[in-house]
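Subject: lytic cellulose monooxygenase (C4-dehydrogenating) structure
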Amino acid sequence: MQLLTATFAIAAFASSVSAHATMFGVHVNGQDQGDGRFKYIRSPPNNSPVKDLASPDIVCGPNGGRAVSSFVKAAAGDKIEFEWFHDNRNDDIIDGSHVGPIITYVAPYTEGNGVGSIWTKIAEDGFSNGVWAVDKIKRNNGKQAFTLPAALKAGKYLIRQEIIALHEGDAAFNAVPARGAQFYPSCVQFEVTGSGTVVPTQNFNFNTGYTYSDPGIVFNIYRTVTSYPIPGPAVFNFGAGGSAPVSTSPAVRLTTTSVAAVRPTTTSVVAVRPTSTLVTSVRQTTTTKAAPVTRPTRCPGKKRRTVVVVKK
Ligand SMILES: [Cu+2]
């Protein structure tokens, strides 16, 4: 009986230290704001994903309702990078099987868990030119830049960035609970300065806005992927008065020049404003094929999970 208990303990430990990803911190205009875990990030207890779209955890993770003590201070219009890692900072960032989009939302600050119709999409990157957003952060020390909209009104906000890992996304979690898209949401407390006037009002609610019928949530990567429909609303338009939010996805066109243009430097990020023309043309011309992945890869940690039954 003791051996049986020990085996379960080892299995649980193996799954908690393996796989997945979590957020380390934030960079503002290239400046590292330091380890933000449990300080300005409402960090989850471990790097495991959320899969249940009905759970409040889908919004800001299991600790979403636990306000932390600090805020990232940034001005509207600043270049922001959220830095992710796998087990240790600057490692492989996330397991190579975990391809998918990276999407960023903002909501007025709350000490609550973020449940409700309070969110607005400010940036998104899915699949373009044969490259997933996740592949890009793996190449860039866990980071991808977006611009804090210049028209965003000063005040406190939660900014939520998520990685959606699609390696088990060919099945819907509610139909096949062992599989399903893996969400890695991370909510960061921000205090924004500046003279912007826009309070974004997209009123998106993750628990009702993300569904198992979304083609970007139940999505099979184990075939030739030519395009990917990013879930959620369109990136919010902050209006002509301020600079538009940056969506890096549509800007990655099939030319060397434009791919170079979306490298996360302040200049180029500002330069890739998503005009509606660009969005349309890119979504229709993204024909580069990703190398097909040969087999559904489970999270590495789950492979090590073994249950040994010991007879007395
Ligand atoms: Cu994982």
